[in-house]
Amino acid sequence: MSNRDTIETKAALLGVALVGAMIGGGCAVNAGPDNSAVARMALDAPDQDGVAQADAHGPAQADGAGRRPPHCVVPWGIDWSEVLHVKKAAVVSPDCTEVRAGDPFTPEVLWITNTEDGIEGGPVLYPPGYTPRHKAPTNDFLHKLDSVRYVVRPGNQEHSFAASQIRRGLHVGDLYEGSGQFPEPQLVWPATALLGELPPLPPGSYSADIHFIMSETHCDGQTNDFAMSCLPPGDSLALTRTFVVQP
After folding, report:
1. Is the entire prediction scored with pTM above 0.70?
2. DSSP secondary structure string, 169-199?
3. Number of separate domains in the chain
């Protein structure tokens, strides 16, 4: 699977989770196994929940400031809210698509790369002519991702975050072990979750486009296909998450 596929599937699904055992490029996880591996990294976040917050322009929480959104627990039993350390917002993922009116929300997206030395059946591969700045694909991605931009529709609300403020490092297995969506060797792939907290919305159906802003070209080390495994400099749509805000 490719980064784009995972982004799409993750978009369908990031967060991360596609069905299949294909190894593609680093991808933004959507709904299936993402074939990328990102080395575990420390989270550099400004608030106690490890996620930067956008300025709130939506309605205030109906039940008071102390209310916590429901957790996102996926069908195979893992609590994504706990694993991702998202406590003050509702996680929006392929398996968690409802948000309560008054609750902030975090559209989850993952970028998965190969490991530094590859995995069984998945050696480190790059397109012809591309040389990473950093040997570990994950480190290369982290040094080149400047910011993450969200566009919420309808309304075209835009929110941007410095990538260093909203990232969290983990492995595919932290989110997908027991799901059957990734072969065993791929569970060790490192993944980077980007977790911007967006303000509450009134009831209705929405989508959130998630864009990566890159300083220079990055390839995930999964394939030698540029279209599948690489992000060019500038603004790239990683994936789109859809969700419903309930009264």
Report:
1. yes
2. EEEHHHHHTTSSSS-GGGGG-EEEEE--BB-
3. 1
